[in-house]
Specification:
The complex is a heterodimer.
Chain A (H helix, E strand, L loop, with lengths): L6 E14 L4 E16 L4 E5 L6 H8 L7 E9 L2 E4 L5 H7 L3 E4 L13 H11 L5 H14 L16 H13 L5 E5 L7 H18 L2 E6 L2 H7 L2 E6 L2 E7 H6 L4 H8 L40 H5 L5 E4 L2 E3 L18
Parallel strand pairs in A: 3-8, 3-9, 6-7, 7-8
Antiparallel strand pairs in A: 1-2, 1-4, 4-5, 9-10, 10-12, 11-12
Chain B lengths: L1 H9 L18 H11 L1 H18 L1 H4 L20 E4 L2 E14 L6 E12 L1 E11 L3 E9 L18 H37 L1 H16 L2 H10 L7 H32 L2 H8 L4 H37 L11 H5 L5 H6 L5 H24 L5
Antiparallel strand pairs in B: 1-2, 2-3, 4-5
Helix pairs in contact in B: 2-13, 3-5, 3-13, 5-6, 5-8, 5-10, 6-8, 7-8, 8-10, 9-10, 10-13
């Protein structure tokens, strides 16, 4: 991982104003994403996990500039020797950069325009970026359909004629249309049933090898992330609380929140006795976060310092970063070791 | 600009692909909608009937044997003429008998009896009163008519001896087109105001919605009455007609604006809109290519279903005497004659314009239903 990262996010913040009353006065800020930094190497998959409301989707949307970040830089390497800061680009400039990155959405039912044929949907990025037109575009879409495992003869059907898994494949084909380097997959399998999930995950992995893609893979479920990620980042209330190589994070977590998430991963072996850590309460409100460490009201290792001082994200072991005052001292339980 | 040019040179290269082998023909979206529409039985009935009604309205002066204000002397409150068939050799030649008026000895109402010795054949394409079609051609040809010594009143006559059939046909012009005109104005207002409200959001949205709340809260009929009362009585019929159209659409646009705003709001944040933005689609592109097609069916249905409301509104206004005024005619004006109970009992034919209203409204609703089903993407 010595190569230059394809994506380097530094100090990313996204605040949404809270408006009240008839005149829409701004009475506060929801800090959906608060000072997030991350890196993705070429061909790497970074898993980004967290509960609903932790800001992981907002991170993905800011990186692709579906949302304008409040602050921070998003260095995106669009070619060998060319890096642009996505956070600074104007709309016109963005249009030129967009073909290099795309998104796969969570809900395969809302992500495809029901009035458009598959040809139009998958071909839209090609048409708008003027990369292909007419017969060339049609051939490219037909090719993409085969790449994602669908019939190339179904180009003029409408999305309603396809099942959830097939629709998600169409979404993947659309994301691949302009031959991008980076794909933000926003919970691409959460809306699918388990057998279909595995198919889509395998497809994504195959495509990564075939086209040299880098993924930011967003999920709320560690078991899905385990399957596909090289490294994993855990988010809690707009901040990254731990980031490490997959195995390190899974077997030697350094943050109590990661430990709790891991304990919720189901194990297929019924003989394995596992302690379930049930977190009390709800995820903190990002408009009014608790003092000190945001996780302290739910943490079972809480000490006095946790209520007053906010921990910083620091390297606790090589390649493993965690933001907990006691990351070094605590002996946290990881996922049960697999024989291999 | 510089960056954009640089980007163009760095655009990702697409791998070459072999030519597609898709040779199956597919129906276009428009054709699919047509098919679906014609499969809807009631709509299949409604559309031709509506077209006939509108054709009748356009050709009203040609179809009507008499002008709207011509009095048939001595034929006050006459019942519909009975049409008989067969004159001499021609078994299909229709004719009417001359009618003689007398008075009922007790009630003093008019009683009309047919004089069977005086046959008057109904001739087609006869010359009569001159008129203009669409203000373009001057003509004096009428679809049918009888000799001046007799008369043919298919729907009877009114209390001042005018032919109700002619008046009903001519009144269709005002009654049917007031709906189209009103909906056209509502459509423009509703799309514009609802679109701005939904797209801009924030305080503008808030103010617009409260104004709509206010307009909806005012009972329609009194509001129409106030506005209609402001129309000067001495205005020519055409001006009054236009003013009524505007009065009707002042209330009519609110519903449409709500539909447009709600649809914009619900569609604006859907993933396929985000996907289109990520593909490089501009606001205008997204609105015209993604948002509008997705609620076009709602718009069409709302529009089709709004027309009957307009027609009924005009009828109501004219019926209570503050809409169209004599000498203007609309179905509402014609129904004024049925305001007293005696007329309903003794001259039931005066309700015939009401039948036209009911049929028109029903047909519009059928067509609206058919359109909605046809444009539904899940049934294509």
């Amino acid at each position: 991982m010595s190569a230059q990262p394809i994506l380097k996010v530094e100090g990313l913040k996204k605040y949404f104003p809270v408006e009240k009353g008839f005149l829409r006065r701004v009475v506060g800020q929801v800090k959906a994403v608060d000072d997030v930094s991350l890196e993705i190497a070429p061909g790497e998959t970074l898993g980004l996990v967290g509960e609903s409301g932790s800001g992981k989707t907002t991170v993905g949307r800011c990186i692709l500039r579906a949302l304008k970040p409040t602050q921070g830089s998003i260095q995106f390497q669009i070619a060998e020797d060319r890096i642009v800061d996505m956070a600074q680009l104007s709309e016109g400039e963005l249009r030129a950069v967009r073909p290099h990155a795309n998104m796969i959405f969570q809900d395969p039912f809302y992500s495809l325009d029901p009035r458009w044929t598959i040809l139009d949907i998958v071909g839209e990025p090609l048409k708008l970026s003027k990369l292909a037109t007419g017969k060339e575009l049609e051939d490219r879409v037909a090719y993409l359909m085969e790449v994602v495992g669908l019939e190339a003869t179904h180009l003029r059907r409408y999305p309603h004629a396809f099942s959830g898994g097939q629709r998600q494949r169409i979404g993947v084909a659309r994301a691949l249309a302009t031959n991008p380097r980076l794909i933000v997959a926003d919970e691409p399998v959460s809306a699918l049933d388990v057998s279909t999930q595995a198919q889509i995950l395998n497809l994504l992995q195959d495509l990564q090898g075939e086209f040299g893609l880098s993924y930011l893979f967003i999920a709320h479920d560690l078991s899905v992330v385990e399957h596909i990620s090289d490294r994993v980042a855990v988010m809690y209330v707009g901040k990254i609380v731990e980031v490490a190589k997959r195995d390190q994070l899974f077997f030697f977590p350094k943050h109590p929140y990661t430990e709790a998430l891991l304990s919720a991963v189901p194990t297929p072996d019924p003989d394995v006795e596992k302690e379930r850590i049930i977190l009390p309460g709800e995820i903190a409100n990002p408009a009014d976060p608790p003092s000190g460490c945001y996780f302290h009201p739910r943490c079972r290792y809480v000490q006095a310092i946790c209520r007053d001082e906010e921990p910083t994200l620091r390297e606790v072991s090589p390649g493993q970063w965690a933001s907990c005052h006691f990351a070094e001292e605590l002996n946290l339980a990881g996922a049960p070791q697999q024989p291999n | 600009m510089e960056l954009r040019e640089e980007m163009a040179s760095l655009a990702p290269e697409l791998p070459t692909t072999e030519s597609g082998k898709d040779s199956i023909e597919y129906l276009s979206r428009g054709k699919l909608i047509q098919r679906r529409f014609w499969r809807h039985r009631l709509a299949r009935l409604g559309l031709p009937v509506l077209l006939l009604l509108y054709l009748m309205a356009i050709l009203a002066d040609f179809i009507a044997p008499y002008p709207a204000d011509q009095r048939l002397k001595g034929f006050k409150d006459a019942p519909p003429s009975t049409v008989h068939f067969g004159v001499g050799e021609n078994r299909f030649q229709p004719y009417v008998y001359a009618r003689k008026r007398s008075f009922h000895p007790k009630t003093f109402r008019e009683v009309y009896t047919e004089e069977e010795d005086q046959k008057f054949p109904i001739h087609f394409f006869v010359r009569g009163e001159p008129y203009e079609i669409l203000g373009l051609f001057k003509l004096d040809l009428h679809l049918f008519g009888v000799d001046e010594k007799a008369n043919v009143t298919l729907f009877g006559t009114d209390s001042v001896s005018r032919d109700l059939f002619s008046r009903t046909v001519i009144a269709a012009r005002v009654s049917l087109f007031v709906g189209l005109g009103g909906v056209a104005i509502s459509f423009v207002l509703g799309c514009l105001i609802g679109g701005i409200s939904g797209y801009l959001g924030g305080i503008i949205d808030e103010i617009t919605q409260r104004i709509i709340d206010l307009l909806i809260a005012i009972p329609t009929l009194p509001l129409w009455m106030v506005l209609s009362a402001a129309i000067p009585r001495e205005w020519p019929v055409a001006h009054t007609y236009f003013a009524i159209t505007i009065v009707l659409s002042i209330v009519g646009w609110t519903g449409l604006a709500r539909v447009v705003r709600g649809k914009l709001l619900s569609l604006r944040d859907l993933d396929f809109v985000v996907a289109s933005r990520l593909a490089g689609g501009s606001d205008l592109y997204i609105i015209t290519r993604h948002l509008l097609p997705n609620f076009a069916s709602h718009l069409i249905v709302t529009l089709t279903l709004a027309i009957p409301g307009m027609i009924l509104g005009e009828t109501a206004l004219s019926f209570i005497g503050i809409g169209m005024q004599e000498p203007g005619v609309s179905w509402g004006v014609l129904l004024q004659d049925t305001m007293n109970f005696g007329a309903l009992v003794h001259q039931p034919w005066k309700l015939i314009p009401g039948v036209f209203i009911i049929v028109t409204i029903l047909m519009f609703n059928f067509v609206g239903d058919g359109l909605r089903d046809a444009a539904d993407p899940y049934s294509l």
